[in-house]
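Forum > Structural Biology > Help requests

Title: Can anyone predict the 3D structure of NAD kinase?

Hi all, first post here. I have the sequence for NAD kinase but no way to get a structure on my laptop. I'd be grateful if someone could post the structure tokens.
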Amino acid sequence: MKRIGLLPNVEKDIGLVNTAMILDWLEKKNCTINLLEVPAQLLQRSDLAKNENQLYRDSDFIVVLGGDGTFLGAARNAALYDTPILGINLGTLGFLAEVEKRSSLEALQKVLNGEYSIEKRMMLEASVYDCHNDERKFICLNDIGITRGSLSRIIDLKIFINDNFVDDYPADGIIISTPTGSTGYNLSAGGPILDPNTNMMVITPICPHSLYARSIVVSDGDIIKVQIGENFGCDVILTIDGQMGYHLKSNDIVTIQKSKYQTSLIKTSNYSFFDILRKKIVGTRSERYESEASIENSRIDSKQFY
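Reply #1:
Sure, ran it for you. Structure tokens for NAD kinase below:
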């Protein structure tokens, strides 16, 4: 008997219609279902309610219903228990939650039949040391961002790799990304795409005040240190997967390295990383261009009509 955790985004699955459908289908397959308390109450299934630790610990795998943001939050928790995740996309891009809603039952049937593979994804660990040498730790699947606040000026960041000084970066911030996260914020900031089967990290400055600052790719065995310069009251924020925020102060040091934890992705298709990249990113752009061309043609036809 499979023990399956259902983790829906209640804002994307309106009325939990998709969650209820999957829940009913899985129970007919004699699966044991675990839900967090809020969706359990909304579905009037308080008998299935678990706290967060129980959900990840007591499930053979987690089904995440939402977008990539929902998936990232689940990944950080599931990694602590080495619990695999299957993502069902209810968002827009769905690069991580790659199973589309219309294919959800087919994908689940494959998992129940054992027709799937587990893909391990590298994660990062960030340790923050303040002036009192107190330490706080965070893990992430996508990226660590160190950025200025919305009304702050350019911030000064000193970068070290394995205690070797690299350079000063006066910039809006910096992104340290895993291969999985390289197609996210890193890509938008002009950084390179890394194959997720490789174990590397990429350091990408955000709007650097420099003519030569470029991304740097390092190995998973390297240790990156970022020292916050004297920023004279500027707001500096550490972000974890773009979801968790922590305020930094001048002279704080952030150490980033490969985490001992990994995210376990359930794969039910034979699509390669490049197939998904082409479909999700290149395809999205093509559709947008086709839509814009269609709108422009409509305008031309309208002018000819009048």
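Helices lie at 17-28, 37-42, 52-57, 68-79, 104-112, 185-188, 273-305. The CA atoms of residues 3 and 255 lie 37 Å apart.
Shout if anything looks off.
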